[in-house]
Amino acid sequence: MSSLIMSVTIFACVLGGSLLGMFVRARMPREHLNAESRDVIKLAMGIIATMTAIVLGLLVASAKGYYDGQARELTEMSAKIVLLDRVLAHYGPEANDARNLLRRSMVVMLDKLWREDSPHSSSLEPAGRGEGIYDKIQELSPHTDAQRFLQSQALNLGLQTAQTRMLMFEQQSSSISLPLLMVVVFSLSITFASFSLHAPPNPMVIASLVLCALAVAATLFLIQEMYSPFRGLIQIPSDPLRNALSQLGR
Fold it and tell me: Collapsing DSSP states into helix, strand and coil, what is residue 34?
């Protein structure tokens, strides 16, 4: 389910709770809405609001942790790519083919992850040119101890880069926890229904409930967007990879 469809569904559910509250208020006997009943409803809604805040906090923490993890791993991978290029540069001209392939793989990665004309097709593939770079490094024939050391370091950096890329690829299947989301939406719907019980419907009340429902839907929309860090509204900046690309081949 896309973030927009999910947000529209949440907005409909929360606003539907408000309409349900208005419907119940219009048909409920007045003695059921006395001061004592209102106090009990407020206490019950206070408990639900507290529980909703806790669950919503878990959703925010999970989404932010995933987003920050992807950003951190991208920066780490970019740094290792630059270091790999410098190691190959110190190896000598024999490593130029591997360095050129490394640069081309960076260009392809940037195009796939931050493709402006087709943002929804952005993806981080686990394999491809990275394996070719590793093979190129293995094909090198060191003649000195220094070259043998640099080759081993380059192979190690190549493995670490591939490992980070594979980790980021596997993490792309992460998404918002559906049970937690359902609990939040259900609790918010009940809360909004209780709001409609306390005041007769009028333009001000209706406008306030609609705006609050929009704010709730927008908040959960942003949480869902953080699970798509390479597309959508909250994208991870491409600066780490672009800065690394500018350093390659020097």
Answer: coil
